[in-house]
Amino acid sequence: MRTGTSESIRLxxxxxxGARLARVGATRVxxxxxxxxxxxxxxxxxxxxxxxASMPWPHRTELxxxxxxxxxxxxxxxxxxxxQGSLRAYLRHVRIAAGSAAELETKAELASDLxxxxxxxxxxxxxxxxxxxxxxxxxxxxxxxxxxxx
Length: 150
Hints:
This protein is mostly helical.
């Protein structure tokens, strides 16, 4: 099984209920809230909301608004995909979430380059977005393995 993180992820369908069950390492995952990547992306969204509030006008509504939307898109797609009921849909949403994390990372770098917020804020947000992206890549690889794709 390929993974991009140190933990293995195993998914299976519960035979009697049809509910998706997953194991991440030794932890049973029954909700998207159990996923560390979802919790991290929620923390990231909260952090982005706080950081963009201090951006100067009009950057707060333009670039800041795009950053807020990308940050919210990440955990939202993880949750939506988890609840879709098919491995293929889950994988598609995880890939969309990874794209949103990369978008946020890029926009955070631009905000730092334009001195729209303190450099430490930009550095920490970019690091959180990059870590989220790596975790989502690992999850996508595990889901691809489960789906039987190369």
